């Protein structure tokens, strides 16, 4: 028997349970993995509190790194001892060991350690699809990225800077403003004390930006639309402050023929070839130092409830890793 963090109902961090679970032998197309590091992400809290519906009971968690223990029938390309990682589920990474479809896993290259891999698979692949596929950032563009001191924000802002963009980031409080500035942002707006719309307009000479990447949601959405230049794209990809209220399409026309998208990582890496290409590009920018990963918090896996409390209270910065 191994241990995992499971939920039997939805609610706050107190519903998380440290329980013994059985892990079966890998079936056709599956791997059994021993986790060495597990990533903490906001989506985990959405599933825990019931915003994203799922069947219960459930082991939480979307991303992790570890070692292959056993290979199921029909699996090729993997063997026991391989270092591997994944970042798009299926849900169940909050465990010492698990089985997972081999198609969901990629090998970790030399030059990237397990903790880093666990910290970047979901957040880094999210940054990849946002910057390289949803709205492909071009050199010379000015972009706005909300929550620039967060896990996705720190990776994405460094990556956007590497791509040649001028990066405007938002963050809450002096400490997070400093973090955002140290991680790729040319301009940082403290939205706890500043009007970010007015600042963006001032920075861009009134033109606005061609794209806003917003993982905050409810509290920043309307203002973000006002930061866009005509025919700009609003990319809302998270709900840290709550889900965005319904919007009439007429609002998009009134504010300059805007585009609005609500993308998810799963859509962008649904094909194995896309997944492998995304992971290879992510590992490359990390291995060569273009994107530096800050793992600013670690917690024992059995103390995941406290990690969730700190994440939701905005007490964490950068990436957080749970250790089995």
Jot down its keywords.
324 residues, Rossmann fold, seven-stranded mixed β-sheet, six-stranded parallel β-sheet, 10 helices, 30% helix
What does this structure look like?
Keywords: NADP, Oxidoreductase. It comes from Inquilinus ginsengisoli. Its EC number is 1.6.5.5. One of its GO terms (molecular function) is quinone reductase (NADPH) activity. The protein has 324 residues and is of the alpha/beta class. The chain folds into 2 domains: 2-121 and 294-323, Quinone Oxidoreductase, Chain A, domain 1, CATH 3.90.180; 139-262, Rossmann fold (3-Layer(aba) Sandwich), CATH 3.40.50.720. It has helices at 42-49, 114-134, 151-162, 174-182, 196-203, 221-225, 249-254, 265-268, 272-287, 304-312; strands at residues 2-7, 17-21, 30-39, 58-59, 64-71, 83-86, 97-101, 106-107, 142-145, 166-171, 187-190, 209-214, 228-236, 259-261, 295-300, 319-323. The strands form 3 sheets. Strands 3, 5, 6, 7, 8, 15 and 16 form a 7-stranded mixed sheet that branches. A 6-stranded parallel sheet has the order 11-10-9-12-13-14, with helices on both faces. A 3-stranded antiparallel sheet has the order 2-1-4, with no helix packed on it. Strand 15 (295-300), helix 10 (304-312) and strand 16 (319-323) form a beta-alpha-beta unit.
């Amino acid at each position: 028997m191994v241990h995992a963090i499971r939920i039997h109902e939805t609610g706050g961090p107190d519903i998380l349970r440290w329980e013994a679970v059985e892990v079966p032998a890998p079936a056709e197309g599956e791997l059994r993995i021993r986790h060495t590091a597990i990533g903490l992400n906001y989506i985990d809290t959405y599933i825990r509190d019931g915003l994203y519906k799922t069947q219960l009971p459930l082991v939480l968690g979307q991303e992790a790194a570890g070692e292959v223990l056993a290979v199921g029938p029909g699996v090729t390309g993997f063997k026991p001892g391989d270092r591997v990682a994944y970042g798009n589920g299926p849900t169940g990474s909050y465990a010492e060991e698990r089985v997972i479809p081999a198609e969901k896993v990629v090998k970790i290259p030399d030059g990237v350690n397990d903790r880093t891999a666990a910290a970047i698979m979901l957040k880094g692949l999210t940054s990849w699809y946002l910057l390289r596929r949803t709205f492909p950032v071009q050199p010379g563009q000015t972009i706005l990225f909300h929550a620039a001191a967060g896990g996705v924000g720190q990776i994405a802002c460094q990556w956007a800077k590497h791509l040649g963009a001028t990066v405007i980031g938002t963050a809450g409080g002096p400490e997070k403003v400093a973090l955002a500035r140290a991680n790729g942002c040319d301009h940082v707006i403290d939205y706890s004390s500043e009007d970010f719309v007015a600042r963006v307009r001032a920075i861009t000479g009134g033109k606005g930006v061609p794209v806003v990447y917003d993982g905050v949601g409810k509290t920043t959405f309307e203002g973000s639309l006002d930061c866009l230049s005509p025919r700009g794209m609003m990319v809302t990809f998270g709900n840290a402050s709550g889900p965005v209220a319904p919007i009439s399409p007429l609002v998009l026309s009134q504010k300059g023929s805007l585009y609005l998208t609500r993308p998810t990582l799963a859509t962008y890496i649904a094909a194995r070839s896309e997944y492998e290409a995304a992971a290879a590009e992510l590992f490359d920018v990390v291995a060569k130092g273009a994107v530096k990963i800050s793992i600013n918090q670690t917690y024992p896996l059995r103390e995941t409830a406290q990690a969730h409390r700190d994440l939701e209270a905005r007490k964490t910065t950068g990436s957080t890793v749970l250790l089995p």
